[in-house]
Amino acid sequence: MHYLSAIEDVNGDYLEFGVYTGSSFCHSIRCCKHNQNLNPNVLNTKFYGFDSFSGFGKIADEDIHPFYTDSNFDTSFDQVNKRVRRISGGFEVKLIQGFFSDTLINGAESMGINKSRIIFIDSDTYSSATEALNFCIPTIQEGTFIILDDFFSFKGSLEKGVAKAFNQFLVNASAEVREVFTYGMGGKVFVISKINN
Predict the structure, then answer these.
(1) What is the CATH number of domain 2-195?
(2) pLDDT in tens, 134-148
(3) Buried b / exposed e along 169-195 (16+ C-beta atoms within 10 A)
(4) Phi, psi at residue 146, to the nearest 5°?
(5) What residues contact residue 169 under an 8 Å CB cut-off, 6+ apart?
(6) Neighbour-count burial for 85-124, b at 16+ CB within 10 Å, e otherwise
(7) What is the C-alpha to C-alpha distance for residues 162 and 119, in angstroms, rounded to an integer?
(8) Cβ atoms of residues 19 and 95 within 8 Å
């Protein structure tokens, strides 16, 4: 997505929801550095990572899943922050610690986020994905890439998890998308192709 957004000259920031140990966040910074030869505008990208760094907290009944538990996703904010700072180079990076219900409440504009190039949703549950995607609505544009890491969780149901949150997001945002590809063990990537005003 970094390559495609670079050659399409999509301006905006990188937003990741569900940073965990920082692997994908750091990978995205490296990709951005690598693509500066294709388009130097990518150096203007700001990187925002949102995570509690302590698991899920209270989980709604519809989000109960055998693997999505606090013990499986508890990590150290300080260690992740150090890891990110080591490779950040000249990029502006910001890790926001806390549950989405607290950290996203004032909206993207309050954080200085106006446009998104790439949105990565790796927060696993319907509730958290809904909060993250709703936060992103004012930032999306034609060409924004949306990565959904757990699209096929909850036994592939379209009525649960990230898939349900994403389909509701498309309605709420009046947006149309094209599928770019699937990846890994159940992820999907889409690009915003049209926003109906």
Answers:
(1) 3.40.50.150
(2) 999 999 999 999 999
(3) beeebebebeeeeeeeeebbbbbbeee
(4) -120, 120
(5) 130, 133, 134, 136, 137, 175
(6) eeeeeebebebbbebbeebbeeebeebebeebbbbbbbbb
(7) 13
(8) yes
> Which amino acid, one-letter code, is at 23?
S
Amino acid residing at 50: F
Mind listing the pLDDT tens digit for each residue in 147-189? 998 898 867 788 888 999 999 999 999 999 999 999 988 899 9
d(CA 56, CA 53): 9
Q: What angle do CA 38, 29, 25 make, to 5 degrees?
A: 140
Residue 181: helix, strand or coil by DSSP? Answer: strand
What DSSP line would sit under 91-123, residue for residue?
Answer: SEEEEEES-HHHHSTT-SGGGT---EEEEEE--
